[in-house]
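Quick question: what would this complex look like in 3D?
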Amino acid sequence: MQIPPILSAPLHMIPIPLIERICRLMFGRIAKAHPGLFERLDEHRQKRFAFLPTDLPLAFVVVPGRQEISVLRKPVEIEADAVTEAPLFLLLALMEGRCDADALFFSRDLSVTGDMEAMLAMRNALDASNIDLQKDLAKLAGPFAPIARKVIGEIRDRALKDQNRPAGEAAAWN
Amino acid sequence: MELICPAGTPAAFHEAVDAGADAVYCGFRDETNARNFPGLNFSRDELREAIAYAKRKGTQTFVALNTFMRAGAEEIWYKGAADAVALGADALILADFGLMAHVAEKYPQQRLHVSVQASASNPDAINFLVDAFTAQRVVLPRTLTIADIARIGKNIRCEMEVFVFGGLCVMAEGRCSLSSYATGKSPNMNGVCSPASHVRYRKDGGELVSELGEFTINRFPAGEAAGYPTLCKGRFDIADSNGYAFEDPVSLDVMGELEALKAAGVKALKIEGRQRGKAYVAEVVSTMKAALNSPPDRRAPLLARLRTMSEGQKTTSGAYEKRWR
């Protein structure tokens, strides 16, 4: 499922510091919920990992060892050790380990460049981590957490149903 | 027949058990196993927890220590074997004869399986390992036909396990030097075939170019399904033609031959893929389990869905149904 331009267009106008602040809040929440998240990265913890959603005008650069995330507006020359490009919902599905990265690479939905050792370690660290964005991020909504959980869950389910993906992967979302 | 399933992380291990694996195979996070990839595999504590989980669910755990020991550093493999035994592994999957001898002597009660990496592919070789080290099962190489497997089965004194789905290694495993030639590292000694440290992907116009060390392995035009950057599945200029010298980017699937494999005396069916994600493990194991429990004519539609998760988005029965000389 691709995010339609009409939904991603407002991101051109929102100030980067604001988007960055929200991303840091979410990153912090996930890191707190999964303290061993980056243990498998070993010597790759201080490397710069760039994630480029192909359907958003933004790029995200993460340095796991410093729990640092920065947001850049495209087009931009990315300075990173490893770069992953895919539609946003696939990147989120990979974060949760709900899609298989190799299968997405074979189908050309995902592209990777740069330090493959670091990228492989990141892929395996995320796959081992049991991140559940619905559960982990809904808490940020405070008293509205139940509503947030429902909304995130519905978006996720919708993304999977709409996704023109092989049945095998779609069935792996649950 | 038993279904033997891969796990590269505790999360994938749980998925495999929950999806109905009869046994899960995995390895330690070091050079003792042939999938020694960054961020993959199990610490001692993780394996302890995984084995306990499997036991509660009635699933067996096989620990792969299936690289060849480095002279002077044997202690790494001996420690791996000692820990796997102490943690309660149901079987050790071994390739190195020296390590088999060590395990047979030190832990005579421990069940020992011969890894595909040992390249034991005829009755004499297999029976030697049974007699010398009390091997109870052999994992056969993916270079044999089903008729070959049936002939071997009649002449050996241990169980047979065969790969039925997943990555297809077309070489004499444990003897292949292609990765070593290109990168200095091999699955046999280092646990890595085409190590990520030597892999590079780049875009060239609309093409995806994969490189291993100093070799260009493939150029995939836009829209063409991609494969792993291994020399054995590279597309090369050979004389006046351009094509795959050894094998296309393709995965193995011989689930259509279950009855023939059963008749050949196969005891266990193995799924390749410890390097794959937990979503792949969950989907493949549950689908294979459903296929095993279905009548033969119902299996093909079930298994077709797995093709898109395969290398090159294609599958083959490979040497099992050899139609070439």
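Answer marked as accepted. The helical segments of chain A are 5-8, 16-33, 88-96, 101-106, 116-128, 133-138, 145-162, 167-172.
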